[in-house]
């Protein structure tokens, strides 16, 4: 079975070992121990990847933990519906953010175009 050291994961994901220990303290990953050494399994690596992706997408650590807990347990219809609600809510938020980003990008492109036009008009012929 493939295992990883904390330093290997930190390097691969470009984060600090302190961050990884924090996620462990928060109960999001559960490495095995060999004495004082943490030994991470493939599952921990996948979870770390999901945590970092979730954070980039605006999920809080509490939301990520809730999704992990829902996924880890025997999934009843109630749990799956709860998971779908969390996903739907996040999709609405992300779509709103994407729309806002598109508006700002269009405004920046228009401002850039006006700046280039003004520079071209101010150059002597």
From TrEMBL:
Coiled-coil annotated residue ranges, if any: 94-121
Name of a matching Pfam family:
MerR_1
The HTH merR-type domain extends over: 3-70
Asked if the record carries the keyword DNA-binding, the reply is: yes
Which SUPFAM superfamilies does the record match to this protein? Putative DNA-binding domain
> Can you name one GO molecular function term for this protein?
DNA-binding transcription factor activity
- Record keyword Secreted present: no
Record lineage = Bacteria, Pseudomonadati, Pseudomonadota, Gammaproteobacteria, Vibrionales
- CDD domains in UniProt: HTH_GnyR
Keywords, comma-separated and alphabetical: Coiled coil, DNA-binding
Protein name according to UniProt: MerR family transcriptional regulator
């Amino acid at each position: 079975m493939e295992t990883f050291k904390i330093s290997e994961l930190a390097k691969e994901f470009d984060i600090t070992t302190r961050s990884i220990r924090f996620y462990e303290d928060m109960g999001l990953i559960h490495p095995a121990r060999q004495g004082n050494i943490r030994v991470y399994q493939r599952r921990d690596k996948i979870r770390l990847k999901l945590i970092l992706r979730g954070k980039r997408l605006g999920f809080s650590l509490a939301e990520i933990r809730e999704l992990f807990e829902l996924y880890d347990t025997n999934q009843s219809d109630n749990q799956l519906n709860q998971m779908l609600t969390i996903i739907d809510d996040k999709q609405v938020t992300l779509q709103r953010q994407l729309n806002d980003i598109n508006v700002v990008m269009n405004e920046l492109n228009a401002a850039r175009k006006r700046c280039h036009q003004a520079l071209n008009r101010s150059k002597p012929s």
